[in-house]
């Protein structure tokens, strides 16, 4: 696969299918369903209960996603600078952070620039910004 950014350009437009409502006790079969349906990206909403009121999943669930789908991880967490490395190490291919999630948004993006994609270091890591 070429670099992730180029691949995303090549397959545009595409959907990033959320797993927020997936049955985590049957995660493998839920992801398999997405693969058979032709999905290309699995979207993981990460909420910490501080930045937003709901709590969802963390790096162990990202790591548990055994799939050729790209893992699109949306961090809705307070101070992502301290936690983003764990999600990248768990296999995130795309990481989006909120500009208003902490005082050092730019540092989070800078830190991610030097990180390697754990699934394929040659493929690269896509960094995204969300404003909410």
Please describe what this structure looks like.
With 132 residues, the chain is of the alpha/beta class. It has one domain (4-130): Alpha-Beta Barrel (TIM Barrel). It is built from 5 helices and 5 strands. The chain has helices spanning 4-11, 27-36, 59-64, 84-89, 105-113, and strands spanning 16-18, 41-47, 70-76, 94-98, 126-130. The chain is globular and about 40 Å long.
The tally of strands reads 5
Strand content: 15-25%
Task: Specify the overall morphology.
Answer: globular
**How do the helices and strands follow one another from N- to C-terminus?**
HEHEHEHEHE
CATH architectural label: Alpha-Beta Barrel
Low-confidence segments: none
> Into how many domains do the coordinates divide?
1
Mean pLDDT: 93
Strand order in space, largest sheet: 1-2-3-4-5
- Helix segment count? 5
The percentage helix is 25-40%
CATH topology: TIM Barrel
How does the helix and strand content classify structurally?
Answer: alpha/beta
Radius of gyration: 14 Å
What is the CATH superfamily classification? Aldolase class I
Give the CA-CA distance, first to last residue.
Answer: 32 Å
The CATH class is: Alpha Beta
Topology, please?
Elements: H1 4-11, E1 16-18, H2 27-36, E2 41-47, H3 59-64, E3 70-76, H4 84-89, E4 94-98, H5 105-113, E5 126-130
Parallel strand pairs: 1-2, 2-3, 3-4, 4-5
């Amino acid at each position: 696969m070429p670099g992730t950014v180029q691949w995303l350009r090549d397959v545009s437009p595409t959907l990033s299918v959320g797993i927020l409502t997936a049955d985590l006790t049957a995660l493998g079969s839920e992801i398999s369903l997405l693969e058979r349906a032709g999905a290309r990206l699995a979207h993981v909403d990460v909420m910490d209960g501080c930045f937003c009121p709901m709590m969802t999943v963390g790096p162990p669930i990202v790591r548990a996603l055994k799939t050729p789908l790209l893992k699109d991880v949306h961090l809705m967490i307070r101070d992502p600078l301290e936690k983003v490395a764990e999600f990248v190490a768990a296999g995130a291919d795309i990481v989006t952070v909120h500009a208003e999630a902490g005082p050092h948004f730019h540092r989070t993006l800078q830190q991610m620039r030097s990180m390697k994609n754990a699934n394929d270091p040659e493929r690269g890591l896509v960094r995204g910004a969300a404003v909410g």
